[in-house]
């Protein structure tokens, strides 16, 4: 109603409001993109794809835009940084002083062919001269005592790096050697499995006439540090998996050699006094859930767990934990006639990052997750394996 008291026609106002709303809708629809059209948001979505090997190759086939993002050289690093922990791809099976083979553990389509993990040819790396030392942070370490060289190799990228022994440890066949590689990147946010692109340390130990020596190679300076030495009673001290616990590396065989990287000290730790470890494959050093040093001792179908702990006087001793693992409840038995039995079990490997123990039995080879007690079959068999199982974890980011 206007000032004269007459009723005004509302139609022009309604039409104007409708035109304004239609204009706003067109503007909003033109300025608001579909989530997958937002480049930054799409990258964040792709970063959250599962870390399994098939994820990125399959996603790159969706369209050229996705392929462009996933093939960017910076994307693999961001992908690894987001997930942090790489998947377990399989195991290197190594016969003492013999050949090595790779057994994939993932199902299709994530299963990477074993041929991808064959030692590259044409690099003066004959199989019979290079001895497999283990895997760490996506790198494998091999030693050739005759050539006095250590090789670090990334099976997924094919990258190789050689390091020559320290001058004073070049005794060739007169020594027994072991080596392991560690990340040495001081910056926060470093992602393992990028270690060829970052500083690393190579730790070497050797035995000659019961004198055990240890030395550290720094990739930044390209030189070996001072050599530490100690007299040991056993030359079998390096035949099992070495593990990193806090600032020390522990080598396990006939005894336990402790190399403290921070203090630059070398020492030997005695086994628990009431544990008989004369048989090969009956014990394994562990990294416990609280980060301490542990020991798994196998007795037929039972695993006892020990841990190094300080007593009230501050003395560090082996303590037997209450937790025991009854393997009969967790392993898949082999059928013999009408009965299902496991005749024999040996410890054949260990993954410190995932806390997995590999068990070789007369019913096959299994991996046991110590925390959850879940088991999984690795490969079938009816004989105890004389192979050592080295777990290999890494991100597969090739598209």
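-> sequence recovered:
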């Amino acid at each position: 109603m206007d000032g004269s008291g007459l009723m005004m026609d509302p139609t022009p106002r309604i039409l104007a409001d409708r035109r304004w709303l239609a204009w706003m809708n067109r503007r909003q629809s033109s300025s608001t993109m579909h989530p997958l059209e937002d480049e930054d948001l799409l990258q964040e979505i792709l970063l959250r794809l599962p870390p399994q090997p098939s994820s990125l190759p399959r996603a790159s086939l969706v369209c050229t835009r996705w392929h462009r993002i996933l093939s960017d050289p910076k994307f693999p690093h961001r992908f690894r940084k987001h997930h942090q922990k790489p998947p377990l791809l399989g195991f290197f099976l190594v016969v003492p002083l013999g050949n090595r083979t790779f057994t994939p553990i993932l199902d299709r389509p994530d299963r990477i062919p074993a041929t991808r993990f064959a030692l590259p040819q044409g690099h003066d790396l004959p199989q019979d001269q290079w001895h497999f030392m283990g895997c760490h942070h996506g790198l494998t370490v091999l030693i050739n005592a005759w050539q006095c060289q250590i090789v670090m190799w990334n099976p997924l990228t094919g990258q190789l790096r050689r390091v020559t022994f320290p001058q004073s440890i070049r005794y060739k066949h007169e020594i027994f050697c072991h080596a392991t590689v560690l990340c040495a990147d001081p910056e926060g946010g470093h992602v393992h499995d990028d270690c060829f692109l970052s500083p690393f340390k190579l730790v070497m130990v050797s035995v000659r006439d019961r004198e055990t020596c240890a030395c550290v190679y720094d990739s930044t300076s390209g030189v070996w540090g001072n050599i530490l030495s100690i007299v040991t009673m056993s030359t079998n001290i390096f035949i099992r998996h070495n593990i990193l616990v806090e600032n020390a590396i522990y080598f396990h065989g006939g005894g336990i050699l402790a190399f403290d990287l921070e203090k630059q000290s070398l020492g030997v730790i005695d086994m628990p006094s009431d544990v008989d470890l004369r048989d090969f494959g009956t014990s394994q050093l562990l990294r416990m859930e609280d980060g301490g040093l542990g020991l798994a001792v196998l007795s037929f179908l039972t695993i006892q767990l020990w841990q190094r702990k300080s007593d009230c006087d501050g003395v560090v001793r082996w303590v037997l934990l209450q937790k025991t693992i009854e393997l009969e409840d967790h392993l898949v038995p082999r059928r013999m006639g009408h009965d299902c039995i496991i005749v024999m079990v040996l410890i054949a490997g260990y993954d410190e990052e995932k806390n997995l123990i590999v068990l070789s039995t007369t019913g096959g080879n299994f991996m046991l997750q110590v925390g959850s007690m879940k088991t999984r079959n690795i490969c079938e068999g009816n004989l105890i394996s004389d192979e050592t199982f080295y777990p290999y974890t890494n991100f597969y980011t090739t598209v």
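Residues 119-269 form a domain with the Lipocalin fold (CATH 2.40.128).
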